[in-house]
Every structure is written in C-alpha cells, then in structure tokens.
C-alpha cells in the first residue's frame, strides 16, 4: 500500500550525468552525438546497400537489414533524451512519456535479441543443412521469423510496462539513470515490488537466457560441422560467414546479461548506468561497423556502389 501523507508523482527527474561538471558533460555530449550520428548513418548505408545490391538479397542480409532498422529505432528511443539531459541536467519527463520510452526501449531491445537468434538459425541452416537451405529459409520463413521477433518484443514490453506503471509512485521522483528503465523505476515505487521483481526476472530469462541458449546450440552444431570440412580453405570460408554475427552476439548479450541478470545483491545503479552507456550508445554502432569491416560481401557491395572493382575479385 502507498505510504500515508504521500503525494502521487506526475513526472520524474533524470539523475543522468548531473554529478558531472559542465565541461565533462559537454565533452560527453560531443562524443555521444558523434557516435549516434555514426550509428544512424552506418545503418542507413547498410540498408541502402542491401536494398540496391541484388547479391545481398539473401536471408542473412534480410535479417541484417531488420536488425539495422530495429537498432535505429532503439537508439532513437533513448539517445536524443540522453543528449538533451547532458545539456540540461535537470531534465524531467512525464509519467506517460516515461512509459512510452520504456515501451519502445524494451520492444526494440528484445526484438534485437530474437533477430540475432534468427540470424544464428540462418547460419546454422546455411552451414549444417546447405542442400535444404533455400527451401527452408524462403521469403515466407524469413518474414515469419522477423515478425515473430517483433511480436515477442511487443508482448514482453506490454507485460513490463503494465507491471511497472501499475505501481504507485509517491514522493520519490528522481530516476537514477539517464532514461526510463525497469530496475530504477521499481526502486521508486512506494509499495511492495516482490511480484514485479519476479516478473522482471522471468522476462529477463525469456529474452536473454533462452535466445543465448539457442544461439549457443546453433554455434556448437556449426563448429562441429565446420571442423568436418576437409579443406582448410573451406573451413576458413565457413568461419568467415559467422564471424561478424558471433562478435555482435557476444557483445550484445554480454552487456545485456550484466545489467539484467546480475543478482540484486550485487546490483549498483551507478555501475548499471555505465554499462547501459555501452549497451545503448556503443553496441548499436558495432552492428554497421562489424558488418562493414569484417564482411566481404558488404565490402564488395560498397565497392560496386562506388563504381569500383570488388575487393574479392582483385
């Protein structure tokens, strides 16, 4: 029950980076704005290249384009608000605005997790079952996997937002974060949150442990299949098709697991905030960077788009 003589909160105040001096905040603003613009432009380039180059009209690059769209929406939900908070440290957000931000953050964050799982399944089918790959991973199957990922994101986000904003918020209104996230909001509730913490833990297991387990199984089978390839060149080529995805998966799930699966007794909102900077600012940039620098098909497509001879044919 809410505490007696308490007032209902109509808006929240982000603590964000208010403890930093003006010069430090200005420096962070420049760095984060640069990374944000690089993320947006990088994802725009990947989407354009995939759309224009017929060599990239395959399931792998369909999922990559969906991931780029999702990452863009994910960063748009968080980073502009964070940048505004760096310039104006005492930034408020309405209850409805906070719920909206949390909804989109969770929807696209969870969508990213399951898109990476779908990409792992695609790599598994391509390497472990190549003869049936084109039949199983047809256009309809790819659309179903992408739609399913978004559907899971939407449903889990609705569960979390309904759970959190069904709580009463009384006197405490300062969010110890730079955006609306579940754990900092639960700490502000003026009632027992045991059920909400159970729901949050259950959702975290569903959207992190389950996808990680599926990706892990996929790569165990992929690696065992690759090791059976007779030629060294064949093994190298097979590993190369998975390397970019594996790098993105490790960083993405690694950061998310540290934030959301860490025991409550070891939880520090200050540490979570630093990890969240990596997860919300740096990790989305890795998708276009890794796939453009490590992926030969994308590099060749970029060369063709610029009217140059593909690197693989030189």
From TrEMBL:
Residue intervals of the G-protein coupled receptors family 1 profile domain: 42-291
Superkingdom as given in the UniProt entry: Eukaryota
Gene3D superfamilies assigned to the protein according to its UniProt record, in alphabetical order: Rhodopsin 7-helix transmembrane proteins
CDD domains, per database record: 7tmA_OR10A-like (cd15225)
A GO CC annotation given for this chain: plasma membrane
Subcellular location: Cell membrane
Main location: membrane
Membrane as UniProt keyword: yes
Topology with respect to the bilayer: Multi-pass membrane protein
Keywords: Cell membrane, G-protein coupled receptor, Membrane, Olfaction, Receptor, Sensory transduction, Transducer, Transmembrane, Transmembrane helix
Family annotation (InterPro entries): GPCR_Rhodpsn, GPCR_Rhodpsn_7TM, Olfact_rcpt
Keyword Transmembrane helix appears in the UniProt entry: yes
GO molecular function, one term: G protein-coupled receptor activity
Residue stretches spanning the membrane: 26-50, 62-87, 102-121, 141-159, 198-226, 238-261
Protein family: Belongs to the G-protein coupled receptor 1 family.
Function: Putative odorant or sperm cell receptor.
Protein name: G-protein coupled receptors family 1 profile domain-containing protein
UniProt source species: Ovis ammon polii
């Amino acid at each position: 029950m809410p505490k007696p003589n308490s007032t209902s909160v109509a808006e929240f105040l982000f603590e964000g980076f208010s403890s930093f001096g003006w010069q430090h905040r200005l420096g962070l603003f420049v760095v984060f704005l640069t990374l944000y613009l690089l993320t947006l432009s990088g994802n725009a380039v990947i989407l354009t290249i995939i759309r224009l180059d017929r060599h990239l009209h395959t399931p792998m690059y369909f999922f990559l384009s969906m991931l780029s769209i999702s990452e863009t929406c994910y960063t748009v939900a968080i980073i502009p608000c964070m940048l505004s908070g760096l310039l104006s440290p005492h930034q408020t957000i309405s209850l409805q605005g906070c719920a909206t931000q949390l909804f989109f953050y969770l929807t696209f964050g969870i969508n990213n997790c399951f898109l990476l799982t779908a990409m792992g399944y695609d790599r598994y089918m391509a390497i472990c079952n190549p003869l049936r790959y084109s039949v199983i991973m047809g256009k309809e199957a790819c659309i179903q996997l992408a739609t399913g990922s978004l559907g899971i994101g939407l449903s889990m986000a609705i569960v979390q937002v309904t759970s959190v904003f069904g709580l009463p918020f009384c006197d405490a209104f300062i969010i110890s974060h730079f955006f609306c996230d579940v754990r900092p909001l639960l700490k502000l509730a003026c009632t027992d949150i045991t059920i909400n913490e159970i729901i949050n833990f259950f959702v975290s297991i569903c959207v992190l442990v389950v996808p990680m387990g599926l990706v892990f199984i996929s790569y165990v089978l992929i690696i065992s299949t690759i090791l059976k390839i007779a030629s060294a060149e064949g093994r190298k080529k097979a590993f190369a098709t998975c390397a970019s995805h594996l790098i993105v998966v490790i960083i993405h799930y690694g950061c998310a697991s540290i934030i959301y699966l860490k025991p409550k007794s070891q939880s520090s909102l200050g540490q979570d905030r630093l990890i969240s900077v990596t997860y919300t600012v740096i990790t989305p940039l890795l998708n276009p960077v890794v796939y453009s620098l490590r992926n030969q098909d994308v590099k060749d497509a970029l060369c063709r788009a610029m009217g140059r001879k593909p690197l693989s044919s030189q």
